[in-house]
């Protein structure tokens, strides 16, 4: 229960007064996460419970056949999300925050932001969604003996080298979106180890970039770019709880142009959305896992030991503390579901029954539970972009059915949810074949705000119990706020213990086990899904 959720009116007033005092005194932590479609801000109190939130909608652009966001949109979006949070604080508690106990920034992992010695951006931001790095990914994976996915920063950098892009000789610094924002706020070119592990492989012994692989890369590019030392181009690695700088006066003005926010707030290491997802679901210990569903969908499984071989379907990354994680990352998640929800919402408005997006989404998801276990013979692909796990360079969203299939709203919606989980299920099969065992799998993301639907169907897709906590809808913004608050306690407790005892000790967790009928139905659907990938490939070639 959060501090302002008490049943008695007098206690309610006292609780609100306590939160107000915490805000004024700076006993709070602010987390901001730049997701694919929404920038979220979450303010938490000393007990880690959310006390205010803000947000801003944004969207990537497809420019010159690359997915990108402009840096102008980054800052206008951050300012809008922060202003939204401040407005929420003012409305709830009647005060305007001027400082925080700690602050953290998180964002989409991977991608490519390259700057010159004058700190000028050399080429537009290339996001994780781009799949144009095939030759670099293949060559690096073979050279390093480590899977280097298409979206990793090092793949983007080496592809630029292979293509002799004019900007390469001018590169002075390469970072991720979270690293970039943190740098501008603090002046520090650092990165949390979890986010760094999506730039270049991490040695889990040193909990830093793998020194042997750095040397291999430098040797590889020596002929083309003599004198290149990759380690000089990458942000310095920091672990959860380590000092990562403080908010400068310039950084405060960037975040809050009104001038109300004071400089000096300590920041935790910037992290990727995978790391904040692990924190938000208490999944940083071995044999735990989490699944994050947003524009992309990915599973993070904390390993007890290294895998026996390299798998193209799996990334090896780390927790925010540097422990080894197998990541099943799918470029396409819930965006196509959201598009269909918009269509049905507009239809409701046309009938004279306008409804909020959450109400429309909830109604459609609940309808899915009435569908046939296998989706009634329908087939859906959510591929708005390419999907490396299934070998597709570009995506074409598709809905396909045979003449004898059962086209109902329930089957349609169940098929759309199954389609969001299809590629993930293919990747999870690889981990199962490696003998990886799990004690718990936690899910988070807005899709799980509708109780009992996506959670139940996801359990069928992964063949394991799926847990959802009360903060599932808060997601990574809450996770990075928790990491910011951890700064004060890192000297006393490791991150896993801190989460288990201080953050999740009294959390309410809802666990749904796989329904046998759903499991059989999803297996039938997945067989159809694999066979139908030829249709998806043909669509990408033809349209």
Automatic annotation (TrEMBL):
Domain Carbohydrate kinase FGGY N-terminal: 29-255
Gene3D superfamilies, per database record: 3.30.420.40
CDD domains linked: ASKHA_NBD_FGGY_BaXK-like (cd07809)
Upper taxonomic lineage: Bacteria, Bacillati, Actinomycetota, Actinomycetes, Micrococcales
Descriptive protein name: ATPase
Similarity comment: Belongs to the FGGY kinase family.
One GO biological process term: D-xylose metabolic process
Xref: SUPFAM superfamilies: Actin-like ATPase domain
Domain Carbohydrate kinase FGGY C-terminal: 289-486
This protein's record includes keyword Transferase: yes
Matches recorded under Pfam families: FGGY_C, FGGY_N
Keyword NAD: no
Native source species: Cellulomonas gelida
Sample GO molecular function, one term: kinase activity
Alphabetically ordered keywords of this record: Carbohydrate metabolism, Kinase, Transferase, Xylose metabolism
């Amino acid at each position: 229960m959060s501090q302002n959720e008490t049943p008695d009116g007098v206690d309610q007033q006292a609780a609100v007064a306590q939160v107000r005092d915490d805000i004024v005194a700076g006993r709070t932590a602010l987390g901001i996460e730049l997701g694919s479609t929404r920038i979220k801000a979450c303010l938490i109190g000393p007990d880690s419970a959310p006390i205010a939130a803000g947000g801003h909608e944004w969207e990537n652009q497809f420019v010159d056949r690359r997915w990108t966001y402009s840096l102008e949109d980054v800052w206008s979006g951050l300012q809008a999300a922060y202003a939204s949070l401040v407005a929420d604080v003012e409305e709830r508690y009647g005060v305007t925050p001027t400082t925080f106990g700690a602050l953290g920034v998180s964002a989409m992992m991977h991608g490519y932001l390259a700057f010159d010695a004058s700190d000028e951006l050399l080429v537009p931001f290339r996001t994780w969604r781009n799949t144009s790095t095939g030759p670099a990914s293949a060559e690096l994976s073979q050279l390093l003996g480590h899977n280097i996915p298409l979206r990793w920063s090092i793949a983007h950098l080496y592809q630029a080298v292979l293509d002799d892009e004019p900007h390469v000789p001018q590169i002075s610094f390469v970072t991720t979106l979270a690293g970039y924002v943190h740098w501008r706020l603090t002046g520090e070119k650092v990165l949390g180890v979890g986010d760094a592990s999506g730039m270049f492989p991490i040695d889990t012994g040193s909990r830093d970039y793998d020194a042997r692989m750095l040397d291999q890369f430098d040797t590889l590019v020596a002929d083309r770019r003599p004198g290149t030392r990759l380690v000089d181009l990458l942000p310095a690695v920091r672990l959860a709880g380590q000092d990562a700088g403080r908010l400068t006066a310039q950084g405060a003005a960037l975040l809050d142009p009104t001038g109300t926010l004071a400089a000096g707030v300590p920041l935790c290491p910037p992290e990727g959305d995978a790391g904040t997802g692990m924190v938000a679901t208490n999944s940083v210990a071995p044999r735990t896992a989490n699944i994050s569903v947003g524009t992309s969908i990915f599973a993070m499984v904390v390993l007890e030991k290294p895998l026996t071989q390299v798998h193209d379907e799996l990334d090896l990354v780390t927790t925010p503390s540097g422990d080894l994680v197998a990541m099943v990352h799918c470029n396409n998640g819930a965006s196509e579901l959201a598009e269909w929800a918009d269509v049905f919402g507009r239809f409701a408005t046309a009938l004279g029954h306008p409804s909020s997006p959450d109400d429309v989404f909830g109604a459609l998801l609940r309808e899915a539970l009435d569908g046939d276990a296998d989706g009634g013979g329908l087939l859906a692909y959510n591929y708005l972009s390419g999907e490396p796990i299934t070998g597709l360079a570009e995506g074409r969203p598709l809905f396909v059915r045979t003449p004898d299939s059962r086209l109902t709203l329930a089957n349609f919606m169940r098929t759309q949810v199954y389609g969001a989980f299809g590629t993930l299920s293919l990747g999870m099969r690889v981990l199962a074949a490696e003998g990886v065992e799990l004690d718990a799998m936690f899910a988070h993301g807005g899709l799980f705000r509708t109780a009992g639907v996506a959670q139940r169907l996801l359990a069928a897709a992964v063949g394991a119990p799926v847990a959802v906590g009360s903060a599932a809808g808060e997601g990574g913004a809450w996770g990075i706020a928790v990491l910011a608050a951890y700064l004060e306690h890192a000297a006393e407790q490791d991150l896993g213990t801190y989460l288990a005892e201080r953050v999740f000790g009294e959390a309410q967790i809802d666990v749904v086990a796989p329904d046998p009928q759903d499991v059989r139905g999803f297996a039938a659907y997945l067989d159809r899904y694999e066979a139908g990938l030829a249709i998806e490939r043909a669509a990408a070639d033809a349209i």
